[in-house]
């Protein structure tokens, strides 16, 4: 591990500029599969989690979340990162007080963490579902909507979460993302989330059909076009 990855450069004694430069370098390194393991083994995860806190600048929070996003693409790291206490600060970063870029990065980390079945329960218990559903709305940019829909699609793999996500109002918001004329790239994640919500829940399937009728869009046809069959 190069000197810039040392834990002391990520710590509170370092300036925001140095923290940002260090996390930027780690983000580039973490794109490599082997480096994902090496960085985690160097105990970089706990200080990265600390950089998500309210005492750090938005730029540092964004860069730290970016590193964690790449690290969380490794299945073993998904367990380690969740155990580090990262989920509550990530949920805080989904809120309206946070910049769109930080919201997007936080939701993307949750997307990868939620690919682990145990983490699906932990993330939901931390209150992430409500915040992610809020990010689906028209006040969010397409990139934020995509990351939020992706995270919800993974959380919805858990049967209990599928009920909670629907109860939080996700279905009409997801259907809105499928409307003709809306931006294309959130559509795949929205369709994936709807497929997961309705897979083993008849009430959710009925709600999806009703939301589609209300929005004057054939949800099943649109989902099939995107590669998802209800």
The overall pLDDT average reads: 93
* Uncertain segments: 1-5
What's the helix count? 15
Backbone CA Rg: 18 Å
SSE run: HHHHHHHHHHHHHHH
Instruction: Give the % helix.
Output: 55-70%
What is the overall shape? elongated
State the secondary-structure class: mainly alpha
User: Cα distance, first to last residue?
Assistant: 46 Å
Compact overview of the structure:
With 230 residues, the protein is mainly α.
In words, what does this structure look like?
It is a single chain. 66% of the residues lie in helices and 0% in strands. By secondary structure, the chain is mostly helical. Helix 1 (16-29) runs parallel beside helix 4 (58-71) and helix 4 runs parallel beside helix 7 (100-113). The longest helix is centred in the first third of the chain and has 14 residues, at 16-29. It starts with 15 loop residues before the first helix and ends in a 5-residue tail after the last helix. Residues 1-5 have low confidence and may be disordered.
Name the descriptors.
disordered N terminus, 15 helices, single chain, 230 residues, mainly alpha, 66% helix
What secondary-structure arrangement, pairings included, does this model have?
Elements: H1 16-29, H2 33-41, H3 45-50, H4 58-71, H5 75-83, H6 87-92, H7 100-113, H8 117-125, H9 128-134, H10 142-155, H11 159-167, H12 170-176, H13 185-198, H14 202-214, H15 219-225
Helix pairs in contact: 1-4, 4-7, 7-10, 10-13, 12-14
């Amino acid at each position: 591990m190069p000197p810039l990855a040392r834990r002391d450069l990520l710590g509170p004694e370092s300036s925001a500029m140095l923290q940002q430069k260090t996390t930027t370098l780690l983000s580039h390194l973490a794109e490599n599969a082997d480096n994902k393991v090496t960085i985690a083994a160097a105990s970089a995860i706990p200080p990265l989690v600390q950089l998500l806190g309210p005492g750090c600048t938005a730029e540092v929070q964004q860069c730290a979340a970016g590193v964690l996003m790449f690290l969380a693409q490794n299945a073993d790291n998904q367990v380690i990162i969740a155990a580090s206490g990262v989920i509550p600060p990530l949920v805080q970063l989904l809120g309206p007080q946070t910049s769109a870029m930080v919201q997007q990065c936080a939701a993307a980390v949750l997307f990868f963490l939620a690919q682990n079945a145990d983490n699906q329960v932990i993330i939901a218990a931390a209150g992430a579902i409500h915040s992610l559903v809020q990010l689906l709305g028209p006040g969010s940019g397409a990139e934020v909507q995509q990351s939020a829909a992706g995270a919800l699609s993974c959380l919805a793999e858990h049967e209990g979460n599928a009920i909670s996500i629907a109860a939080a109002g996700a279905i009409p918001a997801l259907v809105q993302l499928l409307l003709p004329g809306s931006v294309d790239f959130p559509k795949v994640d929205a369709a994936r989330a709807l497929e997961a919500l309705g897979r083993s829940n008849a009430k959710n399937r009925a709600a999806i059909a009703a939301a589609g009728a209300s929005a004057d869009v054939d949800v099943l046809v649109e989902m099939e076009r995107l590669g998802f069959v209800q």
